[in-house]
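Blinded run. Sample ID left blank on purpose so nobody reads anything into the name before looking at the predicted structure. Input follows.
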Amino acid sequence: MKKESVPFKHYSLRLNMQRHGFFVFLWQLLKLDMKRIVTIIAFAAMITLLISCKQKEVHVVMETTKGNLELKLYDATPLHRDNFKMLVEEGAYDSLLFHRVIRDFMIQSGDPDSKYAESGVLLGEGDRSYTIPAEFRLDEGIFHSRGVLAAAREGDDVNPEQRSSAMQFYIVWGKTFDDEGLDKVQKRIDNYTNSRVKLTPEMREVYKTVGGTPHLDGQYTVFGEVVSGLDVVDAIQQVATATNDRPIEDVRIIRAYLR
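Blinded prediction complete.
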């Protein structure tokens, strides 16, 4: 039988269909690769976003007449961290005195009335009109070891919720203890807290080796620590004071700023 020739237009149509199929195949591959590329880009963007959203540690530098301190504010106490950061940014601590200093205990500042206070004037009552809810974090290993930053407050009789002062703070110096001393402190804490707060073995070890003020644990909010300049805290806590615990020679925060 004589083989019929393929009409040219049919051959051309078949060729076009083959070419079309090839381009469809390429397009499918391209779409597949694009999906992968988009997925990779989206994943990378998500990781970048997570990294950028992670809270950067807040550090505060305090220049004082006795030298410089650097404080790290804890993310575990966000209310106190953000409040302190706001006050520093406002310049609220600039030129204030360390108005209360007790050797082997702590140094205290943050009274806005101390900025222009004359020598010998009793200080410690100045503050802003708000308070901050307590943020006790003993379960996260945050307690009154030497060098921590904590919030002052009114006493339990007028402040049963143990809310913190808006501005006033103290930095712990304290002392070291032996086991017998810590047992006595635990009895004091039991009395203050209805046995709610217990010194853990880890806490006791720190108080025996580093020092601090354990009788305040679970009652005053600790929200940061000195990361540089602990020798400055030591120098301040040793200054001579009057009967009202105010240093005889003024010790002043020259300025505080975020690092």
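Unblinding after everyone has recorded impressions. The longest helix spans residues 8-53.
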